[in-house]
Automatic annotation (TrEMBL):
Organism encoding this protein: Protea cynaroides
Residue ranges of domain Peptidase M20 dimerisation in the record: 221-323
Record SUPFAM superfamilies: Bacterial exopeptidase dimerisation domain (SSF55031), Zn-dependent exopeptidases (SSF53187)
Classification via InterPro entries: Aminoacylase-1_M20A, Bact_exopeptidase_dim_dom, N-acyl_aa_amidohydrolase, Peptidase_M20, Peptidase_M20_dimer
Cellular component per GO, a single term: cytoplasm
Entry protein name: Peptidase M20 dimerisation domain-containing protein
GO annotation terms (biological process): amino acid metabolic process
Length: 447
């Protein structure tokens, strides 16, 4: 029995070795291409809570160096590296172009995926499945591939210096990533004149572009009241006051949503308020104690404000109506980064002819055979806000047309043809932006 087992074992080890040898050979034989380089990046497990930044840094560094670009690693918080790639321009005194993307990804639940989320499986239809394929490892590799082509196929030389930044922690707020980068001396030294950051997929044949982000606010409302027997009716219990507050908030939410439903505003142009948790009750071994009215109740909300909204007005509404002290209610607000730029202006990049960068960007898309949709505000939040806060005109753009929007969803994928077309679009954008020899002052670039 034992002998038979051993023979089986050695046979299967032999078979396995053969298999491994075979697969190594196939991998080696598979030619390096933009797609395989994209897949290599996608296979690095960069999902929170433990993103493998180290492997990503070494891959990006070697890809950048392989096309003769300088790459350095900066670290503004321990274990949170940032890769900065540079292609010097022939006139380095002109403000530079910064192309940004984030290294990290949100987690994925493998059981809900058709293919393992970090396998970067390419189907016969050309769909590449991976967490991060749309958000936003695609642009990270497209920037490099576009520069590779400009350098080696078109012998292009940029007038302005081009930088690419690969930042950590965007998906958890960017505090140790872009926020610290934007505030650093190293960033100041880059003398950035214009920045491109991530955007979102478009389901039509028009590319989407984003000129502002919404501003995130986290709200926690707490109600306290006298506990009592579950049979008693009395005023001002914690639960009653929290429920009344929820009704008022629901009314506000409904009014905002009605504007969207009526077509009067895009969903990114209103204040969204969504309850994300409720916490109350006295736990028991079988669930909750059912005959006691609890003395505390709490609810949490995800709120997003368009950049033109007045946060102080909303805060007053919260204090007066949503969590009134007269009803024994308190609240906490956590603000997600800057709301106004250094001059006190809303964080908006002008997406019109008053902004020369906008004109160049738009022309470059058309020159690449693309169509551009009406510029939008991003319903969520990206690192772009930290650069807009410095007054740097920043557009959010990821060249994905005819693609379902799958960021943070199960089975995130990007088609190989869409990825490859995106490289061509970036060749046009990067060459146009870096050739712009206009003056150094763009007072109207942020509106
Ligand atoms: Zn993203």
């Amino acid at each position: 029995m034992a002998m038979y087992d051993n023979r089986c074992l050695s046979l299967s080890v032999f078979a396995l070795t053969l298999l491994l040898l075979a697969s190594t050979t196939t991998q080696e034989e598979e030619e390096e291409s933009p797609i395989t380089r994209f897949q290599q990046y996608l296979r690095i497990k960069t999902a929170h809570p433990n993103p493998d930044y180290e492997s990503a840094v070494s891959l990006l560094t070697s890809q950048a160096q392989s096309i003769g670009l300088q790459a350095q690693t900066l670290e503004f918080a321990p274990g949170k590296p940032l890769v900065l790639v540079t292609w010097p321009g022939t006139n380095p005194s002109l403000p530079s172009i910064l192309l940004n993307s984030h290294i990290d990804s949100v987690p994925a639940e493998p059981s809900n995926w058709l293919y393992p989320p970090f396998s970067a499986t390419r189907t016969s239809e050309g769909k590449i499945y991976a967490r991060g394929s749309q958000d936003d490892k695609c642009i990270g590799i497209q920037y490099l591939e576009a520069i590779r082509n400009l350098r080696f196929s078109h012998n292009f030389k940029p007038l302005r210096t081009i930088h690419i930044s690969y930042v950590p922690d965007e998906e958890i707020g960017g505090v140790d990533g872009s926020a610290k980068f934007a505030a650093s001396e190293e960033f100041k030294d880059l003398n950035v004149g214009f920045m491109l950051d991530e955007g979102q997929a478009s389901t039509t044949d028009e590319f989407r572009v984003f000129y502002a982000d919404r501003w995130p606010m986290r709200l926690i409302i707490k109600a306290v009241g006298l506990p009592g027997h579950g049979s008693r009716m009395y005023d001002n219990t914690a639960m009653e006051n929290l429920m009344k507050s929820m009704e008022v908030i629901s009314q506000f939410r409904g009014n905002q949503f009605d504007l969207v439903k009526a077509g009067l505003a895009a969903s990114s142009e209103v204040i969204s308020v969504n309850p994300v948790y409720l916490k109350a009750g006295s736990p028991s071994p079988t669930g909750f104690v059912m005959n006691v009215q609890p003395s505390e109740a709490e609810a949490g909300f995800d709120i997003r404000l368009p950049p033109t909204a007045e946060p102080d007005l909303l805060k007053k509404r919260i204090a007066d109506e949503w969590a009134p002290a007269t009803k024994n209610m308190t609240f906490q607000i956590r603000e997600g980064g800057p709301m106004r730029d250094y001059m006190g202006r809303p964080l908006i990049t002008a997406a019109n002819d008053s902004n020369p960068w906008w004109c160049i960007f738009k022309q470059a898309i058309i020159a690449a055979g693309g169509k551009l949709a009406k510029p939008e505000m991003l319903a969520s939040t990206s690192d772009a806000r930290f650069m807009r806060q410095l007054g740097i005109p920043t557009l959010g753009f990821s060249p994905m047309i005819e693609t379902p929007i799958l960021i943070h969803e199960h089975n995130e994928f990007l088609k190989d043809s869409v990825f490859l077309k995106g490289i061509k679009v970036y060749e046009s954008i990067i060459s146009s932006l870096s050739s712009f020899d206009g003056g150094n002052t763009f007072g109207s670039a942020t509106a």
